[in-house]
Description:
The complex is a heterodimer. By secondary structure, chain A is mostly helical. Chain A is 66% helix and 0% strand. Chain A is built from 16 helices and no strands. The model of chain A has no long low-confidence stretch (mean pLDDT 94). By secondary structure, chain B is α+β, with helices and mostly antiparallel strands. Chain B has helices at residues 2-23, 25-31, 39-72, 88-116, 154-157, 249-275, 280-299, 317-320, 323-332, 348-360, 372-378; strands spanning 124-131, 134-139, 144-148, 175-178, 183-189, 194-198, 203-207, 213-217, 223-229, 241-247. Chain B has a 5-stranded mixed beta sheet, with helices on one face. In chain B, strand 6 (194-198) and strand 7 form a beta hairpin. In chain B, helix 1 packs across helix 2. Chain B is elongated. The chains are: A mainly alpha, B alpha+beta. Chains A and B meet through helix 3, helix 9, helix 10, helix 11 and helix 12 of A and helix 2, helix 3, helix 4, strand 7 and strand 9 of B.
Amino acid sequence: MAVTADHNIPNRSPLMAFLSRWLLTTNHKEIGTLYMWLSFVLFFIGGAMAMVIRMELFQPGIQFAEPLLYNQMVTLHGLIMVFGVVMPGFVGLANWQLPMMIGAPDMALPRLNNFSFWILPFAFTLLISTLFMEGGAPNFGWTFYAPLSTTYGPPSTDVFIFGVHLMGISSVLGAINIIVTIFNLRVKGMTLMKMPLFVWTWLITAFLLVMVMPVLAGAVTMVLTDRHFGTSFFAAAGGGDPLLFQHVFWFFGHPEVYILILPGFGIASQIIPTFARKKLFGYHSMVYATASIAILSFVVWGHHMFTTGMPLTAELFVMYATMLIAVPTGVKVFNWVATMWRGSITFETPMLFALGFVILFTIGGFSGLMLALVPADFQYHDTFFVVAHFHYVLYPGAIFGIMSAVYYWLPKWTGNMYDERLGKIHFWTAIIGVNMTFFPMHFLGLAGMPRRIVDYSLQFADFNMVASFGAGMLGLTQVLFLYIVIKTIRGGKKATGRVWEGAEGLEWTLASPAPLHTFETPPKFPTPEEDYPRD
Amino acid sequence: MISITTRFRLHRCLTFFALLGSSNMAFAAEMDMRAGVTDISQRILQLHHYSLAICVVIGLLVFGTMFYSIYAHRRSKHPKPATFHESFRVEVIWTTVPVLILIGLAIPATSALIDIEDNSDADLTVLITGSQWKWHYQYLEADLGYYSNMATPEEQINNFETKGRNYLLEVDRALVLPTDKKVRFLTTADDVIHSWWVPDFAVKQDAIPGYINEAWTRINTPGLYRGQCAELCGKDHAYMPIEVEVLAEEEFDQWIVDQRLAIELASGQAVADRAKTWTMAELIDIGQQVFLDHCATCHEADGSGQGSTYPALAGGEIPNGPMAAHINQVMNGAVDTEMQAWAPQLSDLELASVITYERNAFGNTTADIVQPITIFEAR
Lengths: 535, 379
C-alpha cells in the first residue's frame, strides 16, 4: 500500500516509524487495511478451531478433543467467526470503500476510527487467552445461555464478558462513524437514493449495530452481576428467569445475523452489474427490501425459541413474521438474476464468488424458510439441520461476500491485478469444499443428530466423515487465498484506474493504487445523463 | 388460483420424492426426517416434504433462469448488454406471488401447530426432569419415579472396545409408555437447560430450571424409540440419551404393577442393609462400582479430577477431612457448582459404600468406614 513521505518522520528507527504509522494512523485506508488483516488472522484462528471440531467428529468415539475442550472450541469458533472475522471484515471494507464511493476525503471521525480498531486486538487477545486459563475457555456456546454461563460457567467467563464489552464498544463507535460519514460527507449531487448499494446496505447495517450492540452489552452485564454481585436476573432459584436471557440475547442476536449479511447483499449488488455490464435491476426495490429485512429482524427473535414453551399465539406471530422475511429476500435474489438477464457477462473471480454467494445464500434462505414453520422446527431445532442452515448463509453468504469484495477491490487497493488463474482455483475448491462440508449436515440433522455434541451414534458416521473431508479441503484452500492476497500486494500486472470494464462509481475514477489521500477536493458526481469520468 | 396450480405442481414433485425414497429405503431413512410413530410426527413429515418441494421448485426456477442467463448472456454469445433496469410491474409480481406461496405454507403449518399445542385431556402424565447428565422420569398418577442414565461403557467411547449397535443411544432404565393413550409430558430441569427430544414422536421440549413445560404424544406402534438431549448442557451433553419402550396397554398396566412390587422389595432390602454391619472390604467393593458409574465421569476413575471445576479426590480436602462434611457434600451436593445432590439418586448402601471407597482409595488413608445406618440417619 502506498506510503507517502509525510508519514515517515525522519530520525526515527524504522521500527518506531512502522509502529507509529500503524498505531496512530487516522487514515481510512490504513485503518481499513488493519481491519482486513485482523479479520484474516482471526479467520485462520477460528478456522483452526473448526478443524479441531471436524477432526473430532470425523469418527464416532473420542479421538482428539475431550468433551470440555470440544465445547470450548465450539464456543470460541462461533465467537471468533461472528465478532472477529465477518464483522471486522465488513468494517474494513467499509473503511476502505465508503469514503471513496461517496467522494469523501476520509471517514468523518478519524480518531474515533483509530480507537474503534485498536480496541479489537486487545478484545480478541483476551478472548483467546481464556484457552490457557484455569478451568479453560468459555464452554457454553457462543449463545452463552444462562444458567450454563452464570452458575456453571468457568472462571474465564468474566474475561469473555469483558472481551464482548470491548467488541461492542468498537462496533458501536465504528457504526456511528459510518452513519455520520454517510449522512454528512457525500459529494454534492449524491442524494440518498443515488448512493451505491454497498453504501446503502452499510448505512442500514450501522443502524442495526447501534440499536442492538447495547442490548448485548446489557445481556453480558446481567450475566456478570448474576455471577458476582448477587443478582438473579436469570436464576430461577432467586426469582429470576432463565428464559429472560434468551429473549434479551436473541433480541440482539437476530438483528446481528442480518448485520452479518446485509453488507454482503451490498457487495453482490456492486459486483453483479459490473460483470454483467448492465445497471442493477430495481435499485429502489433493492433499497426498500434491505430496509424491510432490517425492520423485520426486530420482531422475529422468538423463532430461536420455539421449543422453550412459548404460547401458541406467540409462536404463530413469530412464524408469520419470519416467513414474511422471505419476501424482501426473494425480491433481492430476483433483482440480481434480472440484472444478469440479457447482460454481457464475464466470469472473473469476484463475479464467481458473487454468483456462488447468490446461489448458496438462497439455499440457506430456503432452509431458513423451512425452519420458520414451527411444527417442523420442533424436529429441526438444535440439530445439524440448523448448523447447515446458518453455515450456508454465513460461509458462502457473508464470507464469500467478503472474498468477492476483496478480489473486486484488491487491484484498487494495491495497484496490482491478482492472479486470475489462482483466483479461479480458489473459487472452485472453496465452492466444492463448502458444499461437501455443509450439505451433508442437512441430512445429519434430519436423521436426528443434535448439534454441539462431541460424539455421535453410529448411523451418523458416513456423512460426518464426508463433512470432515470437505472441511479439510475448505480450510486448505484458504491458505491459497492468503497466498494470492500476499502475491498481489507484492506485485503483479498493473491495474488501471477503472480496473473492470463495466465498473461504475466514484472509486474507479481514482488511480490504482488509490493514493493515501483521495478526494481532498470533492469530485464531480455525474448527473444521470453523464458517464463517470474515465482515466 | 395460484395456490391450486402450486398444489398440482407440488403433488407431482412429492410423487417424485416418493419414488426417490422407495428406490432405496435404507438410503432415504438416513437422509430424511423420520416418519415416526405418531399422527403428529407423520403430519410434520408431510409439512417438511411440502415445504421442501416448494423450495426445490422455486430453486429450480430461479437457478434455472440464472444458469440460462450465465449460458446465453455471457459476453462471447451476447456481446451487447441490454439497458433495461427497472419494471414496476415485474417487481409487484415477484413480491405478491411469494406472499401467496407463503400463505399456502402457513395454512397447514398453523393447523398442525394448533393440534400440537392442545395439551388437554391427557390419560397419563410423566414429569421429566433433566439434570447433568441424566433424565428422571416420574409417573405422576402411579407414584413411581426413577433415573435413566446412559448405559454405553466408557471403553467404547474411548475406542478400547467395539462400539455397540446402539452406541450412545442406550440407557440403564428406559421410560415405559403405553400405546394409544394421550401421554402428557411435563419437563423441567434441576441445573441447566436441557431438551427432551424423541424424533419418532416429534416431541422436543426444553427442560428449563424454574419452568414446567408441557408437551404430549399418542404413540401408535409398540417398540423401542431413541432420542437425545438437544440443548447444550455442559460437558457430557452428548451422553444423555433417551430410550422409550412403548408397550401395548395391558402390558403397560402390568409393568406398573411390577414396578410397585419392586419398590416394596427394595425397601425390604434397604431395611436389611441397614441392619447389617458391613466390612471395609465389602463396602469398597460396592463403592468402587458406584464410583465408576456415577462419579468417575467428572472426578476421573483414579480420583485425579479435572482442574478446578472437578476437584481431585486423591489427597482431596473433603475425602480426607471430617466425615460428617464429606457425607453432607455427597448427599446434598455443593451450591453453585456442578457437584449434585446424590441422596435422592442412590440408596443408603450405595452412598455409604461410595463414601467409604473415596476415603480409602486413590491413596487416601483415613481408614473410616461409613455404615448404611449412618446415611439413613443423615437423611
